[in-house]
Amino acid sequence: MDKIALITGITGQDGAYLAEFLLNKGYIVHGIKRRSSLINTDRIDHLYRDPHEPDGRFFMHYGDLTDSTNLIRIIQSIQPDEIYNLAAQSHVQVSFETPEYTANADAIGTLRLLEAIRLLGLTKKTRFYQASTSELYGKVQEIPQRETTPFYPRSPYAAAKLYAYWITVNYREAYDMFACNGILFNHESPIRGETFVTRKITRGVARIKLGMQQKLYLGNLDAKRDWGFAGDYVQAMWMMLQQEKPDDFVIATGEAHSVREFVEKAMAHAGIEIEWQGCGVEEVGVDRADGRVLVEIDRRYFRPTEVEFLLGDPAKAREKLGWAPKVSFPELVRMMVEEDLKLAEQELLCRNHGYNVQVSHD
Ligand code: NDP
Ligand code: GDR
Fold first, then answer.
1. What CATH number has the domain bearing residue 149?
2. Which intervals hold domain NAD(P)-binding (predicted)?
């Protein structure tokens, strides 16, 4: 019998990569998507087949992590072998503006899924993956961060994910469930949400290069992150659920770079060399060739409490799962810039023919 997986957050970056990965492994994949006034399935449309065709292996269900009865009904009808809980209000800065909703979806949403598994008598059948995060480490306690590093969340998002982390551990211990936390460090791709810093930069660089945008406005350039490629990271999620025993794993590259370095590399891939002038919020990134200001600081993008430095130690994942990242930092930046250059060219073409393309204002 083919395995059945349920992915929450299937319309997001990781959901799209994971769905493709599992379909290629022969799984039947079900996903939960939210109702929205505009179509929100761009990232997975290429996987979707007309439901009228026979032998469908990919199914979508309307649902929401804030709606218990909906989750229970979906899980009851699917009887999944594996659930990947990727759905979340995943933007750290937005969580300061919507803390209650973030807690509801990210913390209690996880509890709702675990309870659904328990209520439906699926604790022995259904394996559970929780999308935990390096944001749990927050204020630096130890470098690099590993599974044993103490947590110190620095945002409503991270505090909600802390609850989700521990409730997953608790259900594993209390009910003997196969439930795992993947403590994933930042992972990016050409389909990364446009308001996360990497994609904002690569998209901005591409548009500056093609003369469609003057400047890039950013916040803290000195924050450091351990950035990997999302395609590599979804494989680790699956590997965790194939182990003999459930456990928690850090997934990271073991290499950290600053936002500033990301900007420099992305610009360089587009053939622009920048130098930094001034300091603090007055600092600017200037095109060496013609002195144009291409990067400016905007206070709006500073967070009330910042996470300055995340660097993961993936040794346990390497040893126990046999997992290692394949895409390096320069390859990741290049891949994202190249894809955004292609998109910007398409957008320019549309614009020149009188069509408007939707853009983010963050
Ligand atoms: P995205 O923001 O790209 O995707 C989030 C997904 O969750 C979307 O499909 C979104 O739907 C859905 N969603 C949001 N709220 C709800 C809700 N209330 N009910 C149902 N679905 C909802 O995130 P990523 O793919 O980048 O991340 C996946 C998970 O991994 C998240 O939980 C994130 O917090 C976590 N994580 C991500 C890391 C990263 O670097 N990417 C690192 C560590 C953890 P819609 O499309 O309709 O908005
Ligand atoms: P993060 O990702 O908060 O690490 O959460 P994000 O890309 O939003 O920020 C990374 C760092 O860049 C700094 N920064 C900016 N960030 C944004 N978004 N926009 C800016 O203009 C900007 N300028 C500087 C930030 O201050 C921060 O230090 C991501 C999400 O995917 C979470 O869901 C996930 O849990 C963690 O990664 C691991």
1. 3.40.50.720
2. 6-336
